[in-house]
């Protein structure tokens, strides 16, 4: 409704007016004993592939024929099929380490006893994704997600 029914946003919702779109998800806590589960998936599969791609698809889709679930799904699938495969050059990965915050010592990812020793599983990821269609060609969609960051929030930033 914010986009499709808004006479101000809808004409601007394209590559001519939008420089980039950022979808950001951060948590201010680590794995906290759930590292065994998290280590199997990492931030890319746990958050970016599942949650943030859903948000990107809703943001970038064309108006559906109706508000029925199947019509919305079809438009989201069109977006996902139009996406360029992500390359390692378009990706930054990281893993949080122990730190002191507010006078309190916080453990690093590898300090979690449920995480395998020497794990390289990323707990932070940022990647640039591109949709190859007439509306979004050339506009980077920057997806960022991480654990044990300074704040807990989720947001979409649109830079016109």
Automatic annotation (TrEMBL):
Answer yes or no on keyword Acyltransferase: no
Any single GO molecular-function term of the entry would be: glucose-6-phosphate dehydrogenase activity
Outline the extent of the Glucose-6-phosphate dehydrogenase C-terminal domain.
1-160
Q: Name one Pfam family in it.
A: G6PD_C
| Any one GO biological process | glucose metabolic process
Q: Which SUPFAM superfamilies match?
A: Glyceraldehyde-3-phosphate dehydrogenase-like, C-terminal domain (SSF55347)
Give the source's domain of life in one word. Answer: Eukaryota
Work out whether the entry's keyword set contains Cytoplasm: no
Q: Keyword annotations for this protein?
A: Carbohydrate metabolism, NADP
State the PANTHER family in the record: GLUCOSE-6-PHOSPHATE 1-DEHYDROGENASE 1, CHLOROPLASTIC, GLUCOSE-6-PHOSPHATE 1-DEHYDROGENASE G6PD
Q: Indicate what this protein is called per its UniProt record.
A: Glucose-6-phosphate 1-dehydrogenase 2, chloroplastic
Source organism (scientific name): Tetrabaena socialis
